[in-house]
Every structure is written in structure tokens, then in C-alpha cells.
Known about the structure:
Blueprint: H1 2-17, H2 26-33, H3 40-56, E1 64-70, E2 84-93, E3 98-108, E4 111-119, H4 125-137, H5 140-159, H6 168-179
Antiparallel strand pairs: 1-2, 2-3, 3-4
Helix pairs in contact: 1-5
Amino acid sequence: MKKLFLLLLPVFFILMFHTSIAQPQIRQSQMVLEEGQTTSEEYNYVTRSYMKVLKKGAPVKSGYEVKSIAKPEGEKVDYKLNVTSFEFSGLYYLKTNKLKAIIIVMYKDEDPDRVLCMPLIDSQPGLYDNYVQDMYSLGKDKKNLLIKQLNSVVTYKTESTTPPERNDETAKKITTQQNR
């Protein structure tokens, strides 16, 4: 249970990232995420067909758009000389502008090697089982790197948000309250 919690914690933070990038965007982002869920068709598209987009330049599925979230620096994770990295993107349905899934592309050096689909939290339970199974099939070292990079993406994105502006009066109130 603890392992499942640790695996799903980054999912929560990535979804929270989409609603907290900047204060003016919160209302719009929340509307995008309302009732969002990944369908089996979308999950299968990402895990079975998205590699063609990456390797052969095929178009993205009609009616959808892919937006990059982050691509942290890669690392050597096993005895081979390959550098493994992950790229995180969102799959959006154009008619509603709703996020439908998180696309995770695993790279060996600079070549796409594997695609995982992180379904949204309200998706069918079986899709999460598939995602977790796909994560474990990466092997211990790559799975741990994926979790580490998910956490770094969440940390980076939340640290890069700007706090609300404070004027001198607000600063005095905060200082007074902290000193009590």
C-alpha cells in the first residue's frame, strides 16, 4: 500500500501543477480538469500508437493536441552506457480543451524507447493498474528514476510559480502575526 501511495503521489502533484502555474490561470485550468478522465481508447492510443508520432513523424490523433510539460536531464541507471531520461507531456482533447492523460516518453540517449500513459485520477481503475504495471516493467532502476524525475518536475513547477504580490501594509501584518 505504501509503494502504491508513493507511485501515485507524483500523479497528484502533476495534476495540481496544471491548476497552480499562475494565479490568473487557475480558473481556466480548473475548468479544463473538471470531470477529466482517460478513456481506454486514449490510453491505448498513447501506449500503442504514440511512438509512431515520435519516430516516424505521424500526426497526433485527430481531435487531440500534445503539450510539453517537462524533460528533465537524463541519467545512467544501469551498467550500460545509455543515458535514460523521461519527457512528460499532456494529451488534450481539442473540443473541450481538457487534459485527458499524461504522456511519459522514456528515452535511451536521445531515442524514444518506450511510452507510458499516466491516466487522470477519475479514470477507470483498470487503467491505473496498467500504468503501475508498465512502471514496474521498466525495472527497478528506471522505475526509481521515473519517480525521481516526476518529483523533480513537480518540485520545479511548484517552485517556479510566483507568489502573490505584497505591499508594505501586507508585509507589516504578516510580520506582526509571525512575532506573536
